[in-house]
Design brief:
membrane, 19 helices, Gnt-I system high-affinity gluconate transporter, globular, mainly alpha
């Protein structure tokens, strides 16, 4: 009965948005209330869960998304994105530009949380799309597939890193196995799959549409690359320095503070405002106008993501994930496959890859221990399952839809199917790896 209620709520959400054209944020709020009532939550708890879900998702993303949007707008308007696009095409050519995007997404995706990487890379994707008249999904999806796979499979991302600890796996070995599994998943779910999507119509978010500037007005190659990649550099240093410094070093608290994604994005925005704005003769009024325009474009995206957080919280507090996982735990199947399946169904129900991974950990741990299953492979199996079935209750789904300005149908056809492909290919790779090392 629980699963029927969840499926009915998801169907109602799609119907309200796609057929009756209800504003997505309002649709999320209405469906969240229906879901809470249908799943038996006390009425006062429903309102509190909706507010908590909105607060949690916005609390972790609002600074990153807003500063990222302002940075992206500045990078586009200043000509820095145009310069980076010229350099990348010069190195790889338009014929192999997809592979450049994959490599960039993979390298950036290892240290960066998915939402940050998405917001930072979108201006680069769109600058190449606009300048060279290439299909947006064809160019953008390979990079985002790489970001998604690193988020689900590889430490130090939150879910796989936590799973390593809970399963008592080896961080280095898990990362090594994860690399072997991640590469084919990215290649199949990214460049190869994207070749089938060239005809999907996409008019990306206007915030990143900048008029093309003459070459003499563009910023230099170094400052363009430095500004765009500075968040990656700072976050990478923040992760690396505590490993080489003494644990009692007085620098650790400072590095921890400066390494917070929201602080990094704010610092980078300040530096970019100087290097791409003031140092090139632009006024603060000019910069304020750019930032204001960026925030107008991002407001609806923030509300939709907030709505998805409300529904996620209702489903989490109702115990849907644990109930479904309990049904599956009695099945007599390969433990790696079962861990993947539990994570996949929890992801389908609650929308969050991190929640799916961490919820599955407590359920599958006793079985993993009893069957002496390789804990490093179980981390990857749960991570692969947590990427499956992204749809309307996933904030990543809406980020992709709104930034690329797609219909619901085309978002399912591109983003949702890509996530399912990388999760499935990941499972196949894990099972093959098991036969090789066992």
């Amino acid at each position: 009965m629980t699963l029927i209620i969840v499926l009915s709520c998801i169907a109602l959400l799609i119907l309200m948005i796609a057929v009756f054209k209800v504003n997505a944020f309002l649709a999320f709020l209405v469906v969240s209330l229906f879901a809470g009532i249908g799943l038996g939550l006390p009425l006062p708890q429903i309102a509190a869960a909706v507010e908590k879900g909105i607060g949690d998702v916005l609390g972790s993303l609002v600074i990153i998304i807003t500063t990222g949007a302002m940075l992206g707008k500045l990078v586009a308007e200043s000509g820095a994105a145009q310069k980076i696009a010229q350099v990348m095409v010069g190195v790889f050519g338009t014929r192999y530009i997809q592979w450049a995007m994959v490599i960039t997404g993979f390298v950036i995706g290892i240290p960066l949380y998915y939402g940050i990487g998405f917001v930072l890379m979108v201006p680069l994707i769109f600058s190449i799309v606009y300048r060279y008249k290439l299909p947006a999904i064809y160019i953008g999806l390979p990079m985002l597939a790489a970001l998604s796979v690193t988020h689900g499979f590889l430490p130090p991302h939150p879910s796989p890193a936590a799973l390593v600890v809970q399963f008592k796996a080896n961080m280095g070995l898990t990362l090594g196995y994860g690399m072997l599994v991640a590469i084919p998943a990215i290649l199949i779910g990214g460049p190869l799959f994207a070749k089938t999507l060239k005809k999907i119509p996409s008019n990306p978010m206007a915030s990143f549409t900048a008029k093309e500037l003459p070459d003499q007005e563009l910023p230099g190659t170094f400052i363009s690359l430095f500004t765009a990649l500075l968040p990656v550099i700072l976050l990478g240093l923040a992760a690396l320095l505590p490993l080489v410094l003494h644990p009692d070093s007085s620098l650790i608290p400072v590095i921890t503070f400066l390494g917070q994604p929201s602080i990094v994005m704010l610092l980078v925005l300040i530096l970019a405002s100087y290097f791409l704005g003031i140092a090139r003769g632009k006024s603060m009024d000019y910069l304020s106008q750019i930032f204001g325009d960026a925030l107008k474009d991002i407001a609806l995206v923030l509300l939709i993501i907030a709505g998805s957080g409300a529904l996620k919280q209702i489903l989490t507090e109702s115990g849907v994930s644990k109930e479904i996982a309990g049904y599956l735990q009695v099945l007599s199947v390969e433990p790696l496959l079962l861990g993947w399946l539990i994570a996949a169904l929890i992801r389908f129900c609650v929308g969050s890859a991190t929640v799916a991974g961490l919820t599955t950990a407590g359920i599958i741990l006793p079985l993993m221990t009893a069957t002496h299953t390789d804990p490093n492979l179980m981390v990857l199996a749960v991570g692969a399952g947590s990427l499956m079935f992204s749809h309307v209750n996933d904030s990543g789904f809406w980020l992709f839809k709104e930034y690329f300005n797609l219909s619901l149908k085309d978002t399912f056809r591109s983003w949702a199917l890509m996530e399912t492909i990388v999760g499935t290919v990941g499972l196949i790779g894990i099972l093959l790896l098991k036969t090789i090392i066992s």
